[in-house]
Amino acid sequence: MEFITVSLLNGLSYGLLLFMLSSGLTLIFSMMGVLNFAHASFYMLGAYFGYTVSQTIGYAPGLILAPLAVGVLGALFEKYCLRRVHHFGHVPELLITFGLSYLILEIVQLVWGRSAMDYRKPEWLDFPAFSIFGTQFPAYRLFTMGVALVMLAALWLLLKKTRIGLVIQAALTHPQAVESLGHNVPRVFMLVFGGGAALAGLAGAVGGAQFVTEPAMAASVGSIIFVVVVVGGMGSLPGAFVASLLIGLMDAFAVGSDRSLADALRFFGMVVNEATFGWVVLKVKISQVAAILPYLLLVLILIFRPRGLLGTREG
Amino acid sequence: MKFALKTMAFSVMLAGASVAFSQSGETVKIAHIDPFSGPFANVGQNQLKSWQFVAERLNANAKLNPAGVKFEVVGFDNKGSPQESLNALKAAVDQGFRYVTQGNGSGAAAAIQDAVNKHNERNPGKEVVYINYAAVDPALTNERCSFWHFRLDADTSMKMEALTSFMKDEKNIKNIYLINQNYAHGQQVAKFFKEGMARKRPDVKIVGDELHPLGQVKDFAPYVAKIKASGADAIVTGNWGTDMTLLVKALNDSGMKVPLYAYYAGVSGTPTALAQGKDMNVSQVAISHSNYTGDLQALRNDFKKKFNDDYYTFQTYLGLRMLSEGMAKAKSTDPVKVATAMSGLRFQGTVGEVEMRKTDHQLQQHMFISKWTKADAKHPYSEENTGFNFAVVKQLEPYVASTPTSCQMKRP
Amino acid sequence: MSARHYEFKPYNIGRWLVWSLFALVLLVAPVVFTSSLSHTMLSQMGIAIIVCLAYNMLLGQGGMLSFGHAVYSGMGSFLAIHTLNAVGKGAFDLPVSLIPLVGGMAGLAFALLLGWVTTKKAATPFAMITLGVGELVWAMSLMFPEFFGGEGGISGNRVTGSKPFGITFGPQIQLYYLIAVYTFVCTALMFAFTRTPLGRILNAVRDNPERVEFVGYDTQKVRFFAFCISGFFAGISGGLGALNFEIVTSEVVGAARSGAYLLFVFLGGATFFFGPILGAILMVLAFVLLSELTKAWLLYLGLVFLFMVMYAPGGIASLIMMNLRVAAFGRLRTLWVSYLGLGLTFLVVLLGAGAMIEMTYHLQINAAMGDQVKYLGIPLHARGLNSWFGSLFVVLTGFGLFELMRRQFAIQWGEIQTEIEKEIKRRETA
Questions:
Q1: What is the mean pLDDT of residues B70-79?
Q2: Are A315 and A233 in contact (CB under 8 A)?
Q3: Which residue from A99, A230, A289 is facing C305, i.e. has the nearest CB?
Q4: pLDDT digits 0-9 by tens, B108-167
Q5: Taking CA atoms, what residue in C is nearest to B92?
C-alpha cells in the first residue's frame, strides 16, 4: 500500500514535469509540423536566464522574465532562420533546429561557463509540503506540478476557445486559405514558435532549480521529450499529457520492481541460473532498465500504433 | 703536488656532481590528454590547470624537485572519447612528448595504455611513459597491467577496502543500501563493497543493490522511496556528476537523514548541491581531504586566488613528485630509465611515505574518510565557496587499503 | 528539359577519368602527407568515407533521416574486434584483411533484425524510431560488459594471424592501403547501387512514395533492402575502424557519433553522390585538427551548419555542381572577380569575428593565465578595449563590403542563370 501510494505520487509528479517540458514542443509540432530539436536548448536557456534573474532581482520575477526572453529569442529565430527553410521541406527544418541546439550550447557555455550553476529554490518554496508514510514531499515539487497543470489549462483554452487559436489551427492545414482571409500567417507562425519556446523557457526557470542547471541539461532531457510527443501522438496536446503521465508512472513503478525475465521464467517452472543461455540478458531487473523503458515504449508504439495514443495524423 | 692532488680531487668531484645532475635544468614535457571541450570540459580544464600550477611550483622548489628539471604540461583535447585519445596520443608523440598523463575515464585510459604498449613495442628508442592519475578501473593494474603504466589514484578495490575497513567499526550500521550507475565503475563499486563487507562484518545486510542507467535518470525520488522502504541505515554510492547531484537533491527533498558514503563527492559541482541541503550527512573515501596544512594549504589557497576554482586533484602533486624523484634516482630523463627507477619507488607524498608498488605500478598511499562539515578554525577551507569542506574523520595507513593484484608484468 | 548527354562509345571516358583520379589520390596521398598523424587521419578519412556514403544511401537517396546509424557501424566494430581476438587466440584462421567483412556481416545482421520495424514508416516516425533504437542500444552497451567490454571496451591486436606476402598491418601505412582498397571497392559498389533498379526505385520512394505504391512496388520492402545494404557498408566501416584503433568502446554506438554522421553528410551534400565523401573528409579534419586549433570549434561548426541549411541545403557538393554548370556554359570567368571580392571580404569578416570569438573563449576559460591571446601570430589583449574595438571595426567593415559584393554578385548570378535557361531552351528546340 505504501509502495503504491508513494510510487503513484512520484510518478504523477514526474509525469507532470515531463508534460511541462514537452508542452511547448507539442504546440510547435502540432501547429507548424516542425520537430524542434532545439526545444531542450530553449529549456536550458530558460533555466540560465532564471538563474541570472534570481541572482540579481529574485526568483519570482525570473518566472516571468525568463520565458519572455526565451520566447523573444525563439520568435526571432523563426523569423530570420526557420522561415527561410520552410519551403525546403521538413528535413531541413529539423536540421536547422539541430544546428541551433549546438549553437545555443556553445553560447551558454561561453556566457555562463561550463560548471553547474547554483540555482536554488526560493526560501518561500523550500519546505516539506506534507509527509506521506514518513517521507517528505517537497513543496517545490507541488509547485512544479501546479505550473504544469496551469500550462495545460492555458494551452487548451488558447487553442480551443480563442480566435487566435482557431486561426492557428486553420493555418496548419490551409495556410493559403487563411492568408487570403486576411490573417498574417507568417506572424502567426512566429507567435506560435515564440510561444512554444516561451513554454520551454518557463519549464527551464522552474525545472532548473529542481534539477541541475548545467550545460549538459539540454542533452539529458532532449530525447525523453521526443518520446513524450511521439507516444502521445504527434499533434495532440491531450495525447502528450496522457503520454507524460504514463511514462512518469511507468518509471516510478518500474524502479520499485526488482523482477527480471529470469524470475518470470522461474515462475513457469524453468530452472534459470548462470549456466543458462542468455543469462546476461535474463538477469537484468526491471529497476535497472527503468530509465530506458520510455525508449522501448517509443519503439513499440511506432511499430504497432504509429500515430501515437491520441494522435490524429502520422508523421 | 698536494695542491695538484687537491685540485684533481676537487675537479673529479665536480665532474661527478655534474654527471649526477646531468638531467638538471632539462625541460620535461608532459602531454595531458583529457576532455577540454564537451560535457566534462570543466573537470578537464580544472585538472589541466592543476598540473600546470603544481609544475610551476615544483620548478621553483629544489627540495620537492630533486631532479632539478623544468616540467611543462600541455593539454591535448580528447573530447572524452577513447578513439580521439588515440589521435591525441599520436599528435603528442609526433610533437616529441615522451610523458603522457590522463585521468578522466577508464575507457580512454584503456585505449591509451594499449596504444602506449604497442607504440613502445614497435618503436624501441622512442618509448613513452603513461601516468594515469584518476582512471580507477582495477583492470588497468590487473589483467591489463603494463610496465609503462603508473597509476596514482587508488583503484576501486582499494577505495572499497578502505571504506569497508572504516565501516566495520561503525556499530550502529546494520543495513546498507547500494546504489550505483550501471556500467563498469558502478558495478565494480558494488562488487568490491559487498566482498569487503562480507569479510569484515558478515552480520551487516545489504538490503539493496541498485544499478541505474548512466546519466539517464532525471528523477531519483522513486529510488529514494525504495531506499526508505528497505529500512537501510546507510547508503553507499559510486555515482558522480549529474547522477550524484540529483541523488543528493532527492535525498534532501525527502528529508532522509541516512548517512551517505560516496566516492566522488568532492568533484566539481557536487559540493554546491550538497550545500543546498540542510544537515547533510555525507562522507567520502578518497586519497585526499580538504584541510591540509603547510605547503599544500598554501598551494590550495593560491590556486583558489588565481583561478577562483578549487584544487582537488592531489594526484597531480604526487605525479610530479614521483617523476622528479624517479628522474633524480635514474639521473636521466630517458623514459625507460625513469620508468625502471619509478618501479618500486618510495617517496614522500602528501602526508607521509608512499610507494609505487613494483608488481603492478599501483601507488600505495594513505586513504582518508572525510565528512562534509561546516568550515571552522580547525577546518578552514571552503569548497566551491560553500562554507563547507570535507574534514578528516579517519586517516588510514597505506597497508589498510592495499589490495592484492593478479598482474604478471612483462618488463623490458 | 533534356540535358545534353555526352555518350562515348565504347568506353565512357568521363567515368574512367574520374575513377582513375580517385584511385590515384588514394594511392598518392600518404606519400604527399608523411607525418604519422597524417597517416592516421588519412586512414580515418577512408573509414569515414565508407560510412558517410552508406548513411547517404538512407538520407540522400532514400529520404530517410536516421538518428541512430552509429548502431550498425558500432556493432560492426564490436563483432570485428571479437573476431580479431578469436583469430589471435587461434580459434580459427581468418586473414586480418577480411575482418572488415565480418563487420559488414554484423552490420547486415543487425539491420535485418531491426530494419523491418524501423522502416515501417518513412520521414518523422522513421527518424524517431532510429532515435529510440539508438538510445536503447547505447544504454544497453554500458550494461553488458561481457560483450561490450564495459568502460575499457574491447581491445585487440591487428598484428596477428597469417601474414600474406609479409604484410603484418603493424605499421600504419600498410593499414592505410588496406583501407584505401576497401574505400575504393565500397565506393564503386555503392555507386553501382545507385545505378541499379533498386537504387532508382529508392529515389522514387524518396520523391513520391504514394505513386510508387500505385506503380506496384512495396515501399517498405524497398526501404528495408536499402536499410540492410546501408547497414552492411556501415558495418564494413566499423570493422576497419576496429582494425585502425585496435580498441572499441561504447562510444561507437553513441548518439554523438550518429549526430556527427548526419551533420557532415549534410554539410558535404546529401543530394549528390560525392557529397558525403567531402563531408567525411571535413569530419575527420574538424574532429582532429580544428579542435586543436581553436577551443571554439563547436561554435564554428554550429554556425557553418546553420548557414549551410539556410543558404545551401544541398551542401558543398551542390555549390560545386552549380558552379560546374556555370562553367559548362562558359560563364564562369565573368564571375571570378565577384568570387574574389566575396572571398576576400568574407575572409575579413571571418578574421574579425574569429578574433572576437577567441577573445571571448579566452576570457571564459583561461582568464587567470593573463589576458593575452595569440591569434594567427598577433597578440590580442582580451581585456583591452583596443583589441575589441579593433576586431569589431574589422567585422563591421568587412560585413559592409561583403554586403555590397554580395548584392552585385546576386545580380550577376541571376543574369547568368537566366542566360543559361535561355540557352537550354534554345538547344532543346534546335
A1: 91
A2: no
A3: A99
A4: 999 999 999 989 988 888 999 999 999 988 989 998 899 999 999 999 999 999 999 999
A5: C37
Helix, strand, or coil here: B284? Answer: strand
Between CA A97 and CA C235 the distance in angstroms is: 29
Whole-prediction pTM: 0.86
CA distance A133 to chain C (A): 33
Q: How far apart are CA B243 and CA B249, in angstroms?
A: 10
Which DSSP string corresponds to B42-55?
HHHHHHHHHHHHHH
Contact residues, chain C to chain A, C-beta under 8 Å: 63, 65, 117, 120-125, 127-129, 131-133, 135-136, 139-140, 143-144, 146-147, 255, 259, 262-263, 266, 296, 298-299, 301-303, 305-306, 309-311, 313, 360-361, 364
Which among C254, C247, C253 has a CA at the least distance from the CA of C153?
A: C247
Asked if the Cβ–Cβ distance from A287 to B216 is below 8 Å, we say no
Query: Could you state, in order of their start, the residue ranges of all structural domains in chain C?
Result: 13-314, 329-429
Q: How many CA atoms lie within 13 A of B198 on its CB side?
A: 6
Alpha-carbon dihedral A172, A178, A179, A180, rounded to 10 degrees = 150
Cβ-proximal residues to C89 (8 Å cutoff; 6+ apart), any chain: none
How much of chain C is in helix, strand and coil states, percent to nearest 5? 75, 5, 20
Measure in Å the smallest separation between the Cα of A84 and chain B Cα atoms: 30
Please say whether the beta carbons of B353 and B346 come within 8 A: yes
Amino acid at C413: W
- The pLDDT tens digits for C51-61 are 999 999 999 99
Q: Would you say B2 and B10 are in contact if contact means Cβ atoms under 8 Å apart?
A: no
Please report residues of C whose CB lies closer than 8 A to that of B186. Answer: none
A–C CB contacts, 8 A cutoff, strictly below: 116
Please report the pLDDT score of residue C8 as a whole number.
Answer: 52
Question: How many residues are present in chain B?
Answer: 412
Q: What topology is assigned to C13-314 in CATH? A: ABC transporter involved in vitamin B12 uptake, BtuC (1.10.3470)
C-alpha R_g of chain C = 24
A289 φ/ψ sector (left φ>0, alpha ψ -120 to 50, else beta): alpha
Q: Which amino acid is at A56?
A: T
- The region, left, alpha or beta by phi > 0 then psi within -120 to 50, assigned to residue B204 is beta
Contact C294/B at CB under 8 A: no
CA distance A15 to chain B (A): 10
Q: Looking at the predicted structure, is the pLDDT value of residue A121 above 50?
A: yes
Contact call for residues B148 and B411 (beta carbons, < 8 A): no
C140 contact partners, CB below 8 Å, separation of at least 6: A292
Whole-number Cα distances in Å, B7 to B17, B18, B22: 15, 16, 22
pLDDT digits (tens, 9 = 90+) for A124-182: 888 888 887 777 888 888 898 999 999 889 888 887 888 887 887 787 778 889 889 98
What is the C-alpha to C-alpha distance for residues B223 and A287, in angstroms, rounded to an integer? 9
Q: Which residues contact B334 (CB under 8 A, 6 or more apart)?
A: none
Residue C297: list chain B partners with CB under 8 A.
37
Q: Under DSSP, is residue C153 helix (H, G, I), strand (E, B) or coil?
A: coil
